[in-house]
Design goal:
- The chain has no helices and eight strands.
- The protein has a domain of about 70 residues: Sandwich (Immunoglobulin-like).
- The strands form three sheets. Strands 3-4-7 form a three-stranded antiparallel sheet, with no helix packed on it. It has a three-stranded antiparallel sheet with strand order 6-5-8, with no helix packed on it.
- The radius of gyration is 23 Å and the shape is elongated.
- A hairpin with a 2-residue loop joins strand 3 and strand 4.
- The protein is mainly beta and about 100 residues long.
């Protein structure tokens, strides 16, 4: 976590009035992950749906897929709306998805 430092000095028409040093370590709160993930599958695709974020700073959702739950997840795309179609899915295969979000 970064700590920010700045100095505030007051200079009035009568001259120099003084300075104050300030330190700030902002409290970082991790955003909540998207919720309510559901899927629909078809011939060669999986359509993903999730609940839209109530955070006004969300600019996109990032979609990741893996062939195993504890495996390596690969980013396969992004979406500005709370849905995505994985056109690379193979019929009969099992996939595990993660949805992340990017904020301002």
């Amino acid at each position: 976590m970064k700590t920010f430092f700045w100095v505030i000095c007051v200079i009035a028409s009568v001259g120099f009035m003084g300075c104050q040093e300030r330190f700030l370590t902002p409290e970082v709160v991790a955003p909540l992950p998207p919720s309510g993930l559901s899927t629909e599958s078809g011939d060669g695709f999986v359509k993903l749906f999730w609940n839209a974020s109530s955070d006004p700073g969300v600019v996109e959702y990032r979609i990741y897929v893996s062939s195993s739950y504890n495996g390596t997840y690969e980013r396969i795309g992004s979406a500005s709306d709370p849905w995505f179609i994985d056109w690379g899915a193979r019929n009969g295969a099992t996939y595990y998805y993660e949805i992340g979000r990017a904020s301002l």
